[in-house]
Write a structure and sequence with these properties.
Elements: H1 2-23, E1 33-34, E2 36-39, E3 44-46, E4 55-58, E5 66-72, E6 80-84, E7 87-88, H2 110-113, E8 116-118, H3 122-130, E9 137-145, E10 148-159, E11 168-174, E12 178-181, E13 184-186, E14 197-201, E15 209-213, E16 219-224, E17 230-237, E18 241-249, E19 253-255, E20 261-263, E21 279-283, E22 289-302, E23 310-323, E24 328-331, E25 340-347, E26 353-360, E27 386-391, E28 401-402, E29 412-418, E30 424-430, E31 441-446, E32 453-454, E33 463-468, E34 474-479, E35 487-492, E36 503-504, E37 513-520, E38 530-532, H4 534-550, H5 554-567, H6 572-584, H7 588-601, H8 606-618, H9 622-635, H10 640-652, H11 656-669, H12 674-686, H13 695-708, H14 714-726, H15 730-746, H16 750-764
Parallel strand pairs: 1-10, 3-10, 19-38
Antiparallel strand pairs: 2-4, 4-8, 5-6, 5-9, 7-8, 9-10, 11-14, 11-37, 12-13, 14-15, 16-17, 17-18, 18-20, 21-22, 22-23, 23-24, 25-26, 26-27, 27-28, 29-30, 30-31, 31-32, 33-34, 34-35, 35-36
Helix pairs in contact: 4-5, 5-6, 6-7, 6-8, 7-8, 8-9, 8-10, 9-10, 10-11, 11-12, 12-13, 12-14, 13-14, 14-15, 15-16
Length: about 775
């Protein structure tokens, strides 16, 4: 009986049309014109804890009339019928700060402008959801022209028993590329970084919650531990330092402090120097470790087209892992082959293995290759990743194995994500690279490997940045199918890996801003209301103080360094930089105090230790100064500053052999450094200790120094004259000293000119110059 009633109700508008036609004296009635329900798609599944969607439909010709919405339920519940105004699609609010000459305000396509809409009120939506759990509901839209049903369309929708149950944390970004210099394009001008925002969205609420904005620095890729209590976040530090990473406990009022930030650069002694580490880092499910990519190189191309404004993917790199317990980072054996790029590692739910992308390593910018001018330009560096799995083994790694169905398929396979039950793997296929690919499509495959399936949720343009809900039944992802300003969608995934059509998460941000990196977080309501970032404010003040220091505006710089240190009194870099200004001003006591405070906070701060040694040197505390320089060299054996300064101490102590030995070591490390060449040549030529002198070596070093300086430095020419004299080449000594004299007089350096004249007198008398003992 239920089935018969349902069919009769569905046909009711058609019967009305027939009756109306008969009343007009017509013959066989024509069927109503076709209405196409464009959103939601047929077969869409909604969460039980989701706010009402906006229904959208289209009818060719855009005829006038009134609309009625009927919802028929398969559980025997009486159907609903409501009137609808058929409002046009609305774009949503505009953020006026994010309007520029490099983007366009969102605008509807002609087709979108022709759409009509209806949004159920809360009570109607609650009833629809309540009675569409066991079987789909049929939603019928009928346009009436007077009393006649003139057009009709329908769609089936269903409500899942599975709630979403968790919020989505995402970055909310402007799309405002800037060409700061000809050919130099930035996705976002540095001064506009405070426009970035981070939001939290519970899908049962009509809009998102703003939790963080206004930061001076950029933060981007983020991840959470399985219990939602730990947040990991890439963070750019002072001077655009991209080697920082924040590991933050999640609280209602969360704070990113300097003590929560690690510097991947601090591990240079364990990893190859000069290579950035910390790309696409991921916190482990238990929050104990962070998997990352180190020794990484990238292909990056930025475009002025705001729709797809960047191409960005790694071409070299190895996997590494950070242990929060001991602060150590190490390469992961089995995923550390420099012949490949190994990147984008994600953890299995049990933390026992990692899935990552791998491809043969390649040059980021091959010589002679033209840079790409748009996304998927054939001039992009071509790279196709395969997905691999490797055991973690408490950091011991193992053998990496390709995942069948997600590798060696002639496409680039990237962005792996494993369902919380460990059964399914969702990844992106594209022709090349990764990240925001226009042709990116989501595929699902058994996590152990198998036959991949193209997911039903895919939209027409760019599908990526996906994340599973904690219960594993929902997945969020990003797409540009409805607007160049990226939006996020939901899909339901059942126990067999079947997914439903995409559900738009409406009103996630302004219409001219984009949703970026959406990720589910296992956080209850009230568990995260706000994030502040004193670390980022410290970085702002640090950059400002540093800029003033470089400009020589010392008093203004001192004030900003002091403001920065109020936020983080234990920052050794800021203490060292403030002490450096005092040292240059000759204010030795406050300089020494700052250097000592820096060393209290960070005993291995080599620059602070060197500078403290300089203060001690200038105050005549030679033994103490030597100790500081020696400790600096123990920490950093290749510190040129420490070597040169230690050589200076040895000279003042009249330990000439020690000075010569130290300067020779400095020259070995940096053979072309002029002060080292000049000082060693002078010492070998003029040392009062005969056993330390070496005229032949002095000439070799001094000639090299004057050649590198293009014979334009009077001090180096003076040293060349002294070296020639020590070697008994007095005619050449007189000529070199004469050149030094001319330059000194031209610079009106009377003191130096007098000293050179006195040495020329010695050379003319056949005598070499000796420093006083």
């Amino acid at each position: 009986m239920r089935d018969f009633t349902l069919k009769l109700l569905v046909l009711a508008p058609v019967l009305l049309c027939a009756i109306a036609a008969q009343q007009r004296g017509a013959g066989t009635p024509a069927a109503p014109a076709s209405i196409t329900v464009e959103y939601p798609r047929d077969g869409s599944i909604f969460p039980p804890d989701m706010a009402a969607p906006t229904i959208e439909w289209f009818e060719a010709g855009d005829p006038a009339g009134t609309w009625k919405i009927q919802i028929h339920f398969a559980d025997g519940t009486a159907p609903l019928q409501v009137s609808a105004a058929g409002d046009r699609v609305r774009l949503g609010e505009i953020d006026p700060r994010c309007v520029s000459n490099t983007n366009r305000l969102p605008e509807l396509t002609p087709h979108q402008a022709a759409l009509r809409t209806w949004k159920p009120d809360a009570a109607t939506w609650a009833m629809i959801q309540q009675h569409s759990i066991e079987k789909p509901a049929i939603l019928t839209i009928t346009r009436y022209s007077g009393a006649v049903a003139a057009a009709q369309g329908r769609v089936t929708i269903q409500t899942s028993r599975d709630p979403v149950g968790a919020p989505i944390f995402y970055r909310d970004v402007p799309l405002m590329p800037s060409e700061l210099q000809p050919g130099i394009i930035k996705p976002l001008e540095p001064k506009l970084l405070p426009y970035l925002a981070w939001r939290l969205r519970y899908v049962d609420e009509p809009a998102s919650r703003l939790v963080l904005t206004g930061m001076h620095t950029c933060a981007n890729c983020h991840s959470f531990s399985k219990d939602g209590k730990t947040l990991g976040l890439d963070l750019d530090g002072p001077h655009n330092d991209k080697g920082l990473y924040a590991i933050v406990p999640v609280r209602q009022q969360t704070s990113i402090r300097n003590e929560d930030v690690i510097s991947w650069k601090a591990f240079r002694k364990q990893m190859e120097p000069g290579k950035r580490i910390g790309f696409m880092s991921q916190v482990s499910p238990d929050g104990r470790y962070v998997a990352t990519t180190t020794e990484v190189q990238y292909y990056v191309a930025n475009f002025t087209d705001y729709r797809f404004l960047q191409v960005f993917y790694p071409t070299r790199g190895i996997l590494a892992w950070y242990n929060r317990a001991d602060g150590q980072v190490q390469a992961l054996p089995g995923a550390d082959d420099p012949g490949f790029v190994q990147s984008n590692a994600v953890w299995s739910p049990d933390g026992q293995s990692l899935i990552f992308v791998r491809a043969p390593a390649t040059e980021s910018y091959p010589k002679g290759r033209k840079m790409a001018e748009f996304s998927n330009d054939p001039n992009e560096v071509q790279i196709q990743y395969d997905l691999y799995r490797i055991p973690f083994n408490q950091g011991a790694g193992g053998k990496a194995e390709p995942i069948r169905g997600a590798s060696q398929n002639g496409m680039s396979n990237s962005f792996p994500k494993v369902s919380p039950d460990g059964r399914w793997l969702v990844f992106v296929k594209s022709r090349n690279g990764q990240l925001m690919r226009p042709d990116g499509k989501l595929y699902i495959v058994p996590a152990a490997g198998g036959e991949p399936r193209l997911m039903n949720c895919n939209t027409e343009l760019m599908n990526s940045w996906h994340s599973f809900s904690p219960n594993g039944r929902w997945m969020v992802f990003s797409s540009k199918s409805r607007s160049p300003y990226t939006q996020m969608f939901l899909t339901h995934i059942d126990e067999n890996g079947n997914d439903s059509p995409p559900i738009l998460i409406e009103n996630s941000t302004a219409a001219n801003r984009a949703v970026n990196i959406p990720e589910f977080a296992n956080i209850p309501k009230g568990g995260l209301d706000h994030i502040d970032a004193p670390a980022a404010e410290f970085y702002r003040l640090y950059d400002l103080a540093f800029e003033l220091t470089e400009k020589g505006q010392n008093e203004a710089a001192i004030a900003e360094w002091q403001r920065a240190l109020q936020l983080d009194p234990a920052d050794a870099r800021a203490r060292t930089n403030l002490g450096g200004i005092y040292l240059r001003q000759g204010r030795l006591e406050p300089a020494a105090a700052e250097f000592r405070r820096a060393l209290e906070a960070k005993p291995e701060a080599v620059e602070a230790r060197n500078n403290l040694g300089l203060v001690l040197l200038q105050t005549g505390q030679l033994s103490e100064a030597a100790r500081e320089f020696q400790q600096s060299l123990e920490l950093e054996p290749q510190s040129m500053e420490a070597l040169v300064n230690l050589g200076g101490v040895y000279l003042m102590q009249k330990d000439y052999r020690g000075a010569v030995s130290t300067l020779r070591e400095a020259m070995r490390l940096e053979p072309g450094r002029l002060p080292v060449l000049g000082n060693l040549a002078w010492l070998l030529a003029t040392c009062p200790d005969k056993s330390a002198r070496n005229g032949v070596e002095a000439v070799t070093l001094a000639e090299k120094a004057t050649q590198l300086s293009q014979r334009k430095d009077p001090i180096l020419l003076d040293g060349l004259g002294a070296a020639y004299a020590e070697a008994g080449r007095f005619a050449e000594a007189i000529r070199a000293a004469g050149e030094a004299l001319q330059l000194a007089e031209a610079r009106q350096d009377k003191e130096m000119a007098a000293a050179v004249k006195a040495r020329i007198v010695l050379y003319r008398g056949g005598q070499a110059y000796r420093e006083a003992n």
